[in-house]
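Sequence design from tokenized structure. All designs in this work follow the same two-part layout: the structure record, then the generated sequence. An example of the structure record is given first.
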């Protein structure tokens, strides 16, 4: 049973929040030219956290009806990616602030960081009631390098695909979104599969591969930023 001692939860939040803020700073640097409203980013982050509350019972239900481990991993990944998408769709996608392609992955990454924050706190709280601060810090750092990055990149794939469909037809936008969702679920499932298959062994190799995907992802973000610049220049030229 999870112990919800407020002091313990607060301690775990501090452990988790520091690296998450580092990731937040890193990803927001990709949108330095036209930064998003801080209030909207904050609400997206909070909605990402709240998504965990809905994911947990769904994943528990899925575990009770799905016996095949591979299918269960895919179902869990799909549940998390869909819920993170809904966290973005609920408010951010309803506003007029998504003015250039790079904005889409930024909001998806923010929601993913919110999701990873609460998920990591619950993980630390449930991992045997860790009393040793050093052990807690080490465990938190491992999830910082792994789970948090995985959530950011996998959800960011959806945002990237939606950004690439910027100003395209409605049908194209739907096709790109579906492709992004499938890609996010696939990436999430693959890494979860290898982590669970190896029971945590060889995590450095797995995380190294994740970093390769992350570098590719960052390069794609740069392309989206250039597309945004081109779009802005076109608007200026027309005016």
């Amino acid at each position: 049973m999870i112990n919800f001692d407020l002091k313990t939860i607060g301690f775990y939040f501090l452990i988790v929040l520091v690296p998450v803020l580092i990731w937040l700073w890193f990803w927001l640097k990709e949108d330095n030219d036209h930064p998003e409203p801080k209030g909207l980013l904050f609400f997206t982050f909070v909605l990402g956290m709240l998504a965990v509350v809905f994911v947990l019972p769904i994943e528990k239900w899925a575990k009770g009806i799905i016996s095949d481990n591979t299918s269960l991993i895919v179902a869990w990944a799909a549940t998390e990616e869909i819920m993170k998408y809904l966290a973005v769709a609920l408010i951010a996608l309803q506003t007029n602030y998504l003015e250039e392609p790079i904005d889409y992955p930024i909001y998806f990454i923010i929601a993913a960081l919110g999701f990873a924050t609460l998920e990591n706190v619950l993980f630390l709280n449930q991992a045997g009631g860790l009393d040793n601060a050093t052990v807690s810090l080490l465990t938190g750092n491992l999830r910082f390098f792994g789970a948090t990055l995985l959530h950011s990149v996998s959800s960011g794939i959806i945002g990237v695909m939606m950004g690439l469909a910027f100003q395209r037809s409605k049908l194209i936008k739907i096709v790109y979104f579906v492709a992004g969702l499938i890609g996010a679920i696939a990436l999430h499932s693959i890494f979860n599969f290898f982590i669970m298959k190896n029971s945590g062994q060889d995590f450095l190799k797995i995380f190294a591969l994740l970093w390769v995907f992350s570098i590719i992802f960052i390069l794609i973000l740069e392309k989206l930023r250039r597309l945004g610049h081109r779009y802005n220049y076109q608007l200026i030229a027309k005016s």
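Residues 156 and 230 are 22 Å apart (CA to CA). We note this feature because it recurs in several other targets discussed in the main text.
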